[in-house]
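Quick one: structure for this chain?
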Amino acid sequence: MSHKSLDTTKSIRDSYYLFFIITTCSVVLLLQNYLSASGIAGNFISGLPFFINFNTSFAYVLGWGIFTIFIYTFIPLVTIYALKETPKQYGFSFNKNGKLIYLIAPILILPITFIFSKSQDFQNTYPFLSNPNSFIELICWEAIYLVQFAALEFFFRGFMLHAILRLTNVWVAILLTSTPYMLIHLVKPTPETIASFFGSILLCWIAIKFKTIAIGIYLHILLAASMDLFALFNKGWFSKIYI
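Got it. Here's what it folds into:
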């Protein structure tokens, strides 16, 4: 086969790959905006028979979480396997790299989330289940919520980042991943929206350097769980639930 034929074949293959990646990312982000963030999916799922005995707000946030997990994982996985590849090729691997980050992160993150959790904006936003009726509700919600962050990391710092890395250089890939990530935070308090962009740059860099999304999942869960618990503490929820 001539070099020209090989180049043509590679060009066609790259075009198909680009089409699959752009289509998948577009579908996920559109579903996230128009069905997940809008509340449509949460309202629909919470109306299913399984959730009928749950209180409305609890059923809604569970529905939102289940749908969000689904779009961030199932849709990219369909594309990955359609391309005859594996999740590991898109950063879904767990290794022992970055051990120091696991130790240092709580020292840096917990004071920051505690300070911001005192803000009225953050207390109005977190947790999404704003007033759990019991510890059982809180635990069930946090379980769904934190798995959702693992799914989010898989999509952004796994699938999207590693797909774009095949097509361009590292910093362009990081910026192209971090921009839509910031956009999904526009409904959040302004400091969080701004921080999400720079936080994504850091998480992308970590995912590339340490060849795993595990650290990003850990950092995101630590940040989210501590914000929820500190916000509830500052709103006096723990004292109310004990009384």
